[in-house]
Amino acid sequence: MSLFRLSLVILFAESFGYKILIYSPQIGHSHVNFFGQIADTLVEAGHDAVLYVPAFYEEVKTTGAKLARVIERPLENKLPYDVSDVLPGTWTEDGRGLVQVFTFQVMIGMAGNIKPHCDMQLADKKLMDRLREEKFDLGITEVFNVCGYAIFHNLGIRTHISAFATNIVDVISSGLGVVNNPSYVPASFTQLSDVMSYSQRLENVISYSTTFFLFQLLVRPYINFNHVAPGFDIDKAVESSAFAFVNSEEFVEYPRPINHKIVFIAGIGVKQPQPLDEEYERIMENAKGSVVLVSFGSVAKSSEMPSKIKDAFVGMFARFPEVTFIWKYEKDDDVAANVTNVIKKKWVPQNDLFGHPKLGAFITHGGQNSVIESTNAGIPMICVPLFGDQMRNAKVAEKRRVAFLLDKRFISSDSLSHAIRTVLYNQTYGESAKRLAQMIRKKPISARERVIKYTEFAAEFGPFDNLNSAGVRLNFFQYYMIDILLPAAIILMLFTALSALALIRLTRLLLRFRMENKQKQE
């Protein structure tokens, strides 16, 4: 953006735009980038979007924004939970379905960090006064980062929008009135489709119930901020959200019940691929055949794979000399040193590579942003999900026939070779990926338009309760109509029992009458 255009945007924002506070703690690169992209989009639309970015994890240094004003807050004290303590488990622990111990280690640890992190911010009078002086019209925060709601409460921001940097997470979306029917809505951390067998539906019910009760038992105790935010009620805060932005693509996601608050904005930050620099352009042009990108994101590093999995990848690379593999690999070592068709890089311009016609496939962990970028670009995937929502992301991409799914527990040169052969040389995956990308590109209302229009509407008319679902306030027995079905079942059973008893007595009476008539005749 030119300096002149940027000046006009800022001038317009100061004159006519809304003032919007976006809470974006540095809990992960994908989360920070998602909220930074929302902020920049609103700035381009003429609003004064302020991105408040408190430090959270030392590994995350970016703010995600290029245009929005940014207020940063350093981390005063080290948080009690270190995510790096369990990261080696990403490659070995089973994170599917009923076995979610690793996922819950991460979730509970993050919740344990959120409370002291939030307490420090709410107790920072200088910070609160500075934010209060801005007189914000609207706040935007991630549902899981509940501190944002408490900050809005303390600042007197009456209208807010919730957001998911992932797909809709079942254990926390119920507060928005979203229905999570386990008969055909897969639980967030499972690897199930929306079409399930009896045993899979049973697994889904148990998984959803386990996740829900563990969340209530182990996570909720960490999200009470009444001591630093008097009168704050997290349940009411979530329920009163004007809308909920979801970083998910409706043409990829499983069809499921939602309500009028849910607004899908996947791809809000997907930029047009830029020309590759000289080095990468040379790599692509010198490739004899297709190029395959191998990247497992910023959390699960390829360099930290167990040696057995590294050997499996290297063995697969060697079987396809006609294919060039660009491997995001974070260390300098001798792994794959003797395989000439492998290029190891500590960083790769992923989105720009997606724009090159020679890129034939993408091997990924199935992170939400990677799946979104790949589907937007029309690049078929080989997904090796590791934990959390990656399991679900990979499964839904498989359902759309744009991804081949591999189980990390059974990775071998043979399984990887079969996946590469299938995705590169079976036209189904490439054609499905291209068609899906065209559908996304030609949606009637783009993600950018949705963010701008729904934010402006909320700022103009909020707070409002027109979209609040009455189902949120029902207890378990009312919600599932047990208070109606149970008495009805009891009445039906009593009626059946009485009918059976009456039938037995009538039968006995008829038999007695028949016997008496027979005796009289004799």
Automatic annotation (TrEMBL):
Transmembrane portions of the chain: 484-504
Keywords on record: Glycosyltransferase, Membrane, Signal, Transferase, Transmembrane, Transmembrane helix
GO cellular component: membrane
Coiled-coil regions, chain positions: none
Catalyses which reaction(s): glucuronate acceptor + UDP-alpha-D-glucuronate = acceptor beta-D-glucuronoside + UDP + H(+)
Family under the similarity heading: Belongs to the UDP-glycosyltransferase family.
Protein name in UniProt: glucuronosyltransferase
Lineage summary: Eukaryota, Metazoa, Ecdysozoa, Nematoda, Chromadorea
